[in-house]
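Consider the following assembly input.
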Amino acid sequence: MEKLCFPLNVAKMSDTQEFRRRLQTVLRSVYDNGLTVETANRLSGGASQETWLITLEGNGTPETLILRRAPEGTESTPDSAAIGLPNEAKLIRAAEAEGVPVPSVIHVLEPDEGLGEGFFMSRVEGETIARRILRNDEYAQARGALPAQCGKALAGIHSIRVDGDPALKVSTGLDQLTYYEDIYQSTGACRPIFDLAMVWLRENAPAPLEAVLVHGDFRLGNIMVDEQGLAAVLDWELCHLGDPREDIAWMCTNSWRFGQSDKRLGGFGDVEPLLEAYAAMGGQSLTAKEIDWWEVLSSIKWGVMCMLMYESFRSGADPSVERAAIGRRVSETEMDLINLLEEQRHA
Amino acid sequence: MHDQPSVSELVQAVKNFVDETAMTHLKGRAGFHARVASNVLGTVLRDLEDRAANEAEEKRRLTDLLQADPGESLDSLNRALQAKIRAGELTIQSQDLVNHLKMTAIAQIKVDQPTYSGLANALKE
């Protein structure tokens, strides 16, 4: 056993050193400076996308940077909905130009730099953990400011022009309903609340609004919040062209209120101030009621995503207790769906 | 077969071990999974306790709603309900349908995630 482990550890060690050496070479050229990469720690990410926190020592360089990357050989992400890191970098830069708070993209990796696909960006200070943002005293002022700030940020994102970008697919509300309905039916599950909600959505679908750039995962957990409120919009990999109401409703989904159900917008506020700020900044003029259909769709989407994550346990692809357990969270979305449909019955 | 300890007692004992010993020694990703494991064991205990009564109630309500043969299995009753919903024969305008689905969802979430906010909303309305 030891004989086997020893060379593996050595290989791992030299990989780490080689990784840091390459990081240092790239960053020295970016900053035109003899800086040193002090540490590189992997923060999170799945099998194909990694997020690294890098600390630097050098004159005129930031102390910390974030690297988002897909190592070589894993450029094509298994999630076909994701747009890929170079596109993500392009959209973050476009969002910055629209005044949306985002990390600054510092450098997009080139193939000959030997680090795979990805980009360096500035590290924005703040909190992403929803339960802390919703409960801690130091975010009280932020919670008050967030609805309007989110409205303004969404108006900025939705105004980004991306004509003809082949990475961005059009996905309307009904496209998404069909997509998730097909997955649900392919699992063979019989959960009549999902059937009822899907039939209701199809029969009550609103006319689509003109397609805009949609963030696709705009909710607590994917935004950086500081004591003043919205510090940065993160996680751009699910961007697509679609209906602006999708982004607003996703943040309203009860699954993303993290227990603070009485506040429709993310558990921290009402949706009306978001809609006011959104319209004031050039977005469509929308009413809270126009978000209802999309909120039902959002619960369906999250419920089917939970089913899919459980499928990865059932198929043996991921044997973790977390993947098994998430199958028993589908009932959360069933509870929300029947509550929402009951409201629609009285509407 | 004897049942001293019973299955529930055994699961409870494992949950005690996870909560009081394993979790205090584990950090990071392993600590997170230990917390998930503890929650799962809580679900297992509630499922063992409530499934028989919940399924009997669900079956009784479905038999009424669909005016079905009392001998039909729960699975075939749910498939029949699904077919009627898909065919548009039962819609959200049916108070009986909505009541049944709501009671079913409440019973399920009480087992799966009893602290979920949506349950409190359902009971409040």
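The longest helix of chain B spans residues 28-66. Ask yourself how this observation constrains the way the partners meet.
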